[in-house]
Glutathione hydrolase proenzyme
Amino acid sequence: MKYSLIVVLSFFMLSACSAPEQVVHKASLATQNEVSIGQSAVAMPDAFSADVAQQIMLDGGNAIDAAIAAQFVLAVTLPEAGNIGGGGFMLVYKDKESDFIDYREQAPLAAHRDMYLDAHGDVVPYQSVIGILSSGVPGTVAGMWLAHEKYGTLPWKDLVDPAVKLAIEGFVMPQKLAGYISRYSKRLKDKGFDVNFDDYFASAKAGEVFKQPELGATLALIRDEGRDGFYKGKTAKIIADFMANNKGLITEQDLAEYEAKARQPISAKWREYDVLTSPPPSSGGIAIIQWLTMYDQLTKGKDKLEHNSAPYVHLLAEAGKRVFADRAEYLGDPDFVQVPVSELIDPDYIAKRGANISMDSISVTELIKPGLKESEETTHFSIIDKWGNAVSNTTTINLGFGSGVVVEGAGFLLNDEMDDFSAKPGVANVFGAVGGEANEIHPKKRMLSSMTPTIVLKDGKVSVVTGSPGGTTIISSVYTSILNALEFNMSAQETVDAPRFHHQLLPKDVIRYQDGLTPQTVKTLEDMGYTMNNNRFGDLHTIINRDGQLDAGSESHGRGKSIVF
Ligand code: GLY
């Protein structure tokens, strides 16, 4: 590749992940005599969204009402990933039926396959990750509108209004967010990127009230006019004019034609559980089913591997190699390419894929081919209401603070989701993921995602609700959280805080891991030939139902808050 992936990664991922301050985390467990009926829980990426989601449910709203309100609050209080300028996936389990609302961004009508290549056919550095050309058509408002039409019980206005107030009246800027904004701003300057991020965020000071009047006005239009308050009329015109004046691609027609889509979630048996998870255009659902199934197949009849021991990490890294080889070849927007979902999650196929894994040595990366033919940012929340309904919602503007571009006059940050397409076959995106034809750019196509909101059921009741940000590492955060909760019986807090690791085929034999793996485990893996890259990732928000007792956890390193009530 023409430009250095390492440079791009370090720019965005350091900005997205470093969180030096001590976190205030609150997780509460309900008392032992409470039962699941009547008990609710939220596990959210910040305290503002947690408090609003709780209040909506105390006011009689269900989990979907709470999710919609939280999504809009996060657009105000978690600007690095919460959004109205991006997209996401909402997995719903309501009255024993499941649904998946795909509000992923899509390529503008004027986009084309080679739009990020120069005259020599090389990828133009940074163009798909920073600045106005990196944005797909936002899907969030349409997604929330569809969720409300299908499942909402409280008035739409009541769900958007808390966000309007937080934007107009302001909120006290958390120290961590202020630090993140200033590091991001410095890096933009250091790299010479010409975006207007500072015009909107440079005034943020820790401990002081931070107001966003333009965003407040945009949210007020959404509150008062619903979906059309964003995709038509004043806001649509502001977005289209801003694009036209700055050589961007998104037009009023792009906005008017955007539709959120309800899709069938992937549902697969794993042990005594039914795993409900994300279908394409997410790659994550197929990946976690492959990963969990391969783990069981390769450990069956053997002594249980010690959590986070070298053999455990190695086995799951080997599985990951195969998972990501399939991801690169087969996965894309199902409205444009045929994704062989049932073949990819067929246990017999998965058994064949894992058959040549050795516990003693690393398989040769170059020989791992797709199987059928032979800021990093984002944010997630999990909710269960007192009726036992659940929402697992992951939303994103891609890297921390997205494209770095704020729509002038509308006050919201635009995504840089176009980088999740494959700009050129075999050339890695910012997450190091490669892709081919299935994920090439096409007008109105949705870029492949790793977002994996997931709900695990046991006997029709919600057992685990989980999800995380983190680009391709999302998939590892999600499947390891399921293993932590259900294989290792950890509490929700232990589940989200246990050190994790991630391997994705490329870069070759590199395992990314978090502090907490023992030095002995790291050394054993290095001796096997792995390069161990200590670089934390993700921000899990998980709720576990243990025999009617809810337990919720939000990662201690972040700004999250979880409540059982
Ligand atoms: N933008 C990260 C993802 O959707 O995978």
Notes: Residues 1-36 have pLDDT under 50 and may be disordered. The CA atoms of residues 106 and 445 lie 5 Å apart. The pocket of glycine is lined by residues 378, 396, 398, 417, 420, 449-451, 471 (CB under 6 Å).
